[in-house]
Specification:
This protein is α/β, with parallel strands linked by helices. β2, α2 and β3 form a beta-alpha-beta unit. The chain starts with 12 loop residues before the first strand and ends with a helix.
């Protein structure tokens, strides 16, 4: 998985995600959230984590930071995005398929 090194692409929706490392997202994601301009952008968030609660907590933190910068977070009111469960670097096929369906539904939100 790569990190965007250029200015934020001009896109209708930006999918933005990070893996859960220790107590939060990667340091590069923190930098991106701090430095990039998100005003007026629609953002769909996703995370990979070993435990759903950890991923949800991280998504909430990312959503709060983005909303303060003027972004609109896409998804339902109960969740700030999609958590994909990973165990020992392996994604379960069911979780991956569920994430695909979620991503396909986002443009309609």
């Amino acid at each position: 998985m790569g990190v965007i090194q250029k200015p934020l692409p001009d896109a209708e929706i930006v999918f933005l995600g990070s893996g859960m490392y220790g107590t939060g997202q990667r340091l590069l994601m923190n930098r991106l959230l701090r430095e990039w301009i998100f005003a007026g952008r629609k953002v769909a968030l996703f995370a990979t984590a070993s435990y759903p609660g950890d991923g949800e907590k991280m998504l909430g933190s990312m959503a709060d930071a983005l909303e303060k910068k003027g972004a609109k977070i896409l998804g339902n009111t109960e969740s700030h995005g999609k958590v994909i469960i990973v165990h020992f670097r392996n994604v379960h096929k069911e979780d991956l398929e569920d994430a695909r369906k979620w991503a396909q539904e986002i443009p309609g939100k």
